[in-house]
Amino acid sequence: MLDIQFQLNVRKFTHNLIFLFLLVVKRFPKSAKLRIAYAFFLIERLGKKYQKKALEELAYADMLKPSLYE
User: What is the pLDDT of residues 31-49, one digit of tens each?
Assistant: First the structure.
């Protein structure tokens, strides 16, 4: 029972993180650094299921022409 509750909490937490990232990206659409961070979050934490979305975010960040140090 505890394991199932833990898994549900992790899913809710992950869903909330995705929601927060989307809100912030909407607020700062030209932030390449934020989009890159979101892409890495998708790849590292959510795996192959979100790989396509992560690649889309990286492509969009690239179109923003971030500086080398960003």
Answer: 999 999 999 999 998 888 8
Give residue limits of the domains in the chain.
2-63
Full-model pTM: 0.78
Please give the C-alpha separations between residue 15 and each of 1, 8, 21, 37, 47, in angstroms, as whole numbers: 21, 10, 10, 16, 14
9: left (phi over 0), alpha (psi -120 to 50) or beta: alpha
Query: For residue 70, what are its two tokens?
Result: 């960003």
Burial 21-33 (b: 16+ CB within 10 A, else e): beeebeeeeebbe
In this predicted structure, the answer to whether residue 4 has a pLDDT above a threshold of 70 is yes
